[in-house]
Amino acid sequence: MRAKITYLVTAAVLVFYFVLVGSRGVMLIQTGTLLTVTFGVAVLVLPVIGLWFLWKNTQFVHRANQLAAELEAEGGLPVDELRRTPSGRIDRDSADEVFARRKAETEAAPDDWRSWFRLAVAYHDARDTPRARKAMQRAIALHDGRPVQV
Q1: How remote is the C-alpha of 49 from its chain's centroid?
Q2: Exposed, middle or buried, 138 (CB in 10 Å: 0-12/13-18/19+)?
Q3: Do residues 24 and 12 lie in contact, with contact meaning Cβ atoms separated by under 8 Å?
């Protein structure tokens, strides 16, 4: 729940920032000189890119949460079997062991979105966020029946 609140607050702050920057871009365009119009258009591009990125990221999180809920209903969510340090951090060797099992599971069933979801969690636990995201994107695509890019 805390992560959702943090995400919503961050998204709201970003939207406020995009509106603020966009209004400055409009003011520059309204000035009417070649230089200010050029800068105004350039300034307006930033909020558009930011809003697009925020929208795509929100869609990704929503779809990943839907898959998690579906997997939980099936009883297939990965169990947290990781050892932790006294400070609560995940033990690296433990994460590597779980990752090896998840990778083997995914190689055995490459068209199963559930195995890709569990692999994404293992990547995340191993602190490999880019690969975790790619594995989750693949799980989402397989679940939705879309072609998977290799």
Answers
A1: 16
A2: buried
A3: no
